[in-house]
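cron nightly-structures :: item 1 of 1
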Amino acid sequence: MQLDPPETPNQIQHQSTSQSPPPSDQYGPQHYDASGEPRGLWHQRERSMSPRSVGETDVLRPLGPAVHPDVLEERLRRLSVRDQSSTERPTLAGQRIAEYESALTPSAPRQALGFKVTKRADNGTARVDLADFPNEILTHILSHLHPDSHASVALVSKRFYALVTTPHAWRMAFQRFFPAQDALSTPSGLKVVAWGEDDDDTVRSEVRVFTRLAPHASWRSEYLSRTRLLRSLSRGKPGASSGGVGVSSRAGQSSKKAAAVLTYNTKVPSIITHVHATFKPNGKKPPRVIHGAADLGVGSASDPTVGKVEKWGLDDPFAFAQLDEVMPQLIPYGMGEGPAAIPNVMDVSQPHGLVGGEGFPGGRVFFRPAGEYRGKYLGQELGLVEAHPDIPKIPELSEGICSVWIAKSSSVPTVTQSMVGIMTGSSLGVVTTYALGYDPSAPRYTPGEVSARWVLSPGVPIIALKVDDSYSQKRKALNRVWAIALNALGEVYYLTQPPSPPASKSKADDSIKLAWHTARSTYWHLVEATRRQARPDDSGRNAVRGSYSPRSPSNAMSLQKEQMIAEAREIERFLRYKPAHFRKVCYGWDMRRKLEVDFASDDEQGAGECFFILDCALDDDQVWALRRFTRTVAHQPRATITLPAAVELSEPAPRQSIFGGDSARSASPNPSNSHLLKQVLSSSGKRSPSPISIASRASDDWVETKFFSKEIGGATVTASAIDSSLMALVTSFEDPLKDASGLPTSGPATPSGQLPSDIPGRRARLIGLGTNSGKIVLWNTRAGHTGDGILPVRVIQTESPEISCLALSALYLVHGGSDGLVQAWDPLASTLDPVRTINSRSPGRMPRHLLALHPTITDTNFSAVGAIHLDPDPTVLHGVVAFGTFVRFWAYSSSNQVPGRKRRLRHSDVHGRPTGRRHGGGVKGYIAAEAEELRDEQRHKAREQARLRSRFGVGINNLSEEEALQYAEMISQESFLLEGQRRTSASDTGSAADLDTTSTTGSMDTITPEPSVTDMSPPTGSTSAAIETISENEYELQIQTAIRLSLLEGVNDAGRSPKGNSSCEFDGPITFKEKKARQPSSSSPSSSHTPMVKRAGSSSRTITSTTAIADDDLELALQLSLAEEESRKAMAGLGTSGDEFPPLSGWGKGKGKGRVM
C-alpha cells in the first residue's frame, strides 16, 4: 500500500512543448568547460525548454557558474523559479532549499488510498539457474573451487562432469592457485591471501612453467597432486611407509614412536660439505646416506631412518693435508706467481663410494669404495713414458686436483663398459677417467684403474666437470652430449661419444700408455663461443699466444707419427706456463666459476643440450653473470635427399691436420648404418633420420643467451642449484607425453581429453641462485632465446643473512642459510611464505674437539648449511640436510588421506564393508544392511546386560532398574549402620579408662540413631545393651589373644628374649612381682585417645561393667610397662661383663696402645 504524494503546484511544472532527441549522456548534469561554454547537449536542452525572458535568465545565474538548472533531468525541472514580472510575495526562509530537495526526490504516481494486489512474477521464467550459464563462464566459476570439491561437482550431471574433467577447467584452476611469475608483480609488503579470498579475479598470465610430478601427468592430476603434497609438507606429519624415520627394514629394529625428523651426529671430524643418499629401500637394504668433508677427504655412511652411523670411513685414519700446511705462502686460485692451487675437492656417491682430490701442487686422487673400509690413491702406476715420445710428460710435482666426479648410478659405467666411473680434472688441464664396475663383454679393469687421459687446455686448470648420470644407449646412438669440462679461462669442452675399450688388455700392458691410446678413440670438442680472448698489447704477440692452445688429438684426425710427437712437445711447452702467464695474455681468469648443465634439454632436432656458466662476483672488481649456451646442429642442404635402404654409404675420408684442423667437425664414429640407432628410434616412436642427415652433420653451433635479474644487483652469488627430479632428467624423445602412442590406453584416472601437445609445465626446468643478501632467484633453463635476455620467474626473499646451499625438485625448493635456517618454499608461489621450516637457526660456535683436531678451521661457520639432498621422486617428501657435523633427515607423509571435506562413509553392506547409499546395491541391499546393523545392536545390548547382572546384580529376581537401586540402597544402609556400631563399641572400650566417672553417669545426652531399613522403629534399650555386651566381649578376647601372641614372640625356647631383636637386650629371665592395683586417675583423658561416642539407652549396669573391664586392661598394661622398666635397670646394673663385644679401655697419656682390662 502506497500513499499519494502531495500535489505539486502547477506553476512549478514546466513541460516541454517541443520534441527533442534523447540525450546521449546519462551520467548526471552537464558541466561547463573552462572557457565558459556548455558541454554536451546544453543547446538542445535550451531549445527544448519554453521561452523565457532575459531577466529570468539573469535570476538563474547566481546558482553557480558550473551547473545550470535547465540541463538537469526531468525531476530537476520542478524547481520553482521566481518570476520578476509576477506579484511580489514574501519568501519564507529556506524555501529555496526545500524546493530543491523536493525536486530531487523521485515522484511516485498518484494512487488511491488502500491496498493494491500485484501479481507475482513467474519463478520459472524470472529465476536464473546455474545451468543457464554458458560453458565458458561455468568453467571459470568451477576453477575457483577448492580442489577437494571437484570430485563432488563431477557427480551433479553429465554436463558438469564434462566441464570438470576437461583440461581447460583444470588449467584455469592451476593458474589461479599457482601464480608463478605473476607473483613478481606483487609488492613485497603484501602477501598472497588464502584460498577463496583472492580479490583479483583476473589471470594475468596463461603460461605456467614447471616440471611435472609424474610421467603421465595431466592438468587435473598435476593440480590435485601438487596441492595435496604441499598441504602434506606444511602439516609435517611423519610418514608411515618404508623409508620413514624409525622405520627400518633391518631385522630386529623397530621404532617406539614414528617421527618426521631425525637429527644425528655423523662422527665426521670436520664440517660436512657433500651428501648423497638413496631413500627408497632396495630389497632388504634400508635407505643409506653418505656424507663427507672435502677439506680432510673423509666421510662416513649412516642409516637415516634410525640415525645409526656405520663403521665405513671411520676406521680408516686417513686424512688429506691442507693447502695452508703444505704451502703456506702460496696464493690460491692462481692469483699469485706460483702454480695454481685450490682447497681440496670431493664428490660422494652412495652406490660407489667417495673420491677426493688434493688441490695443492703434487696432489693426488683418493678413492674409497662403498664396500671397503680402506681407501687408496689412484694413478700411482709409473709407466715408461720416456719410451713413447707421442705421449706428453706431465710434471706431477706441479699438478693438483681441481675437480672430481664419481658416478651416482650405474648408467654411465654400464654404457661405457665400466671404463668411466670416476673423472678428475687437474690444475694443468688434464682430464683422467678411472674404471668402475665390471663388464664381462669388455676388457677387465680393476676398480680405480686409469682408463683414459686427455690434455684439454695445457696449463689452464679444469675447474668443473659434469657428466650425464642418465646416460643411456639411446642417447649414445643419437650423439648426445654426455660430459662437459670447464677451465679457468671460461672455455668449455664436451664429449658426444665415450671412449672405446681397447681390443685386448693384459696385465703386462702399461696402464698409462694404454690410457693415452684409448683416449684417442674419442675427441673433446671446444665450444667456439667460449674460446679464450687475448689481451691486446703493443707488439701484438698476445694475439697469437692468447688465442691458441693445443690439446690431445684423436684417431679420426689420422695424424702421422711425427705429427703426434710434435703435438706432444707443444703440449709440454704449454704445461710449463704458470697462471700468471695466462692472466697476462688472456681475459677472464677465474677459478671460482660454477658450471650447471641440462643434459635433458632437447629441441627435437637431435640437439638442444645446454650448459650455464656462472660468474659469482666474489672479487670486488667483478659482477655476477649467468650465461646459457644451447647446442644446435647445422645440416647441409643435401641432407634432405633420401636414399633406398639397400644403398650403403661409404664413410668419407677425414681431412688430415697436424693440430686438429677438423676440430669443428664431429669426430665420433658414423652411426648411420647402426642397427642399434634404427631400433632405438623406432622404439621411441620417431621417424628414423636418413643416413645422409647424420653423416652430413657439419658442425655444432652454440647459441649464447644471457639471464638478467635486477633483484641481485651488485650482490655476490653464494649458491646455485638446478632441478634434479626424475622428470627434469627426461629428454623429449623419452617423454611419454610427447607422442600419442606413449600414452596409456586407459588414460588418467578421470578422462581429461587432453591433447598430447598440451603438456603441463611445457617441460620446463628451473635453476636457482642464492646471494649473500638472502635472496633466491629462479629462471626457466629451457626458455626460448631472446636478444634482451631472460627474466626470472620467481624471486624469494628469505630470512637468512646469506644463502649457503640450495636444492630444487619439481615440487618445492629448500634453502640453507649461513645461520642454519632451512626452509621449504613453493617455486610456483601458491604462498609467499615458506611452506615449512625444516631446521631453525643455531649458534655458530665450533666444538672444542674439532678445534683441538684442526686449529686452522677457526674461521669456518659451524652453523652454516653445507649440503642438501632431496629425493629425486618429488611425490616422496624425503630429504637430508647437513650443517656442521650433524645431519637432519626428514620423511613427511604424502598419503592420499586428506582431512576436511572427504565424504564420510556411514553405511556398510551385509559383509561389513563400508559403502555409501549410492553404491549399496539398491533398496534390497540397503534394507539388509540396516537389518544387520539392528542385529549387531541387539547382540551388543545383550552382552552389556549380562555383564551388569554378573557384576552389579542388575536383573536378579526380575527386578526393574529402580527396584534394584532401592534394594542396593537398603543393603548399603544396613551395612553402614552395623559398621558404625562396631566402630563405636571399639572406641568405647579403648577410651573408657580415660573417662571421668562423674561425666559418664548422668551428663551424657541421648541421641536417637537412624532407623533401620527393615524396621522403621528405633531399637529398644535391652537390645542395644545385648549387642554392645557381645561386641565388647569379642573385642576383649581379641585384645587378650593379641597380647599373648606378642609375649610369645619375644621369648625363645629357654624362656629368654632373643638377642638382637630389641634395644633392651638381657640374658636373665623376667620375673613379674604382684602389686596392688591402683585406681585410675580422675584427670581428663589424653588428647591422643579417641573421644567416646555418645550412645542412647545405656544404663548404670553397663557403665559399671565397662569401667571394670577398662580397669583390668589398664592394670595389665601398667604391669607390662613396669616389668620392662625393671628389666632395663637390671641390665644397666650388670655392667659389660656379659657383652659379646666388650669395649677396649685404657689409661695413660700420649700415643700408643692402652692396656686392656
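cron nightly-structures :: done
The CA atoms of residues 19 and 565 lie 109 Å apart.
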